Amino acid sequence: MLGLAxxxxxxxxxxxxxxAGIVAPSIFKSLDDDEALKFxxxxxxxxxxxxxxxxxxxxALALAARSxxxxxxxxxFLGFVYGRQILMPKMTSAKDxxxxxxxxxxxxxxxxxxxxxxxxxATQMVLLLIIVVATQILSLRQP
Length: 143
Hints:
The model has no long low-confidence stretch (mean pLDDT 94). Helix 1 (2-30) packs antiparallel against helix 2, helix 2 runs antiparallel to helix 3 (69-101) and helix 3 runs antiparallel to helix 4. The longest helix has 38 residues, at 104-141. By secondary structure, the chain is mostly helical. The two termini are 18 Å apart. The chain has helices at 2-30, 33-64, 69-101, 104-141. The protein contains four helices and no strands.
């Protein structure tokens, strides 16, 4: 069970790295602002659902294996739920307000929310890396 939890954690980490390193930068380099906004509003909810599904599955498997990693995976799962259900709607609203008003205050609010999402995403990736590396090291130590 723990091996499967690690497997799904690895898939999630790879997905997140691909999205952050390839997909997101490509969107903003290849599309104009309006198209990029429309596309991100379409793809980000799916990104978060993918993260929710994989982290929930990995958490359940780690819990069944009675592994400490279920704690870290639960944190990752909650980060995706928070990101999709709370932070993303706030960011969408803040971006719309900034685009409508073009004030420094609205820009600052959006940038602050975006920074929070980046910090959460980076933290999730670090936790996933710890899980994957730690479980592999522990599996090598077992006779």
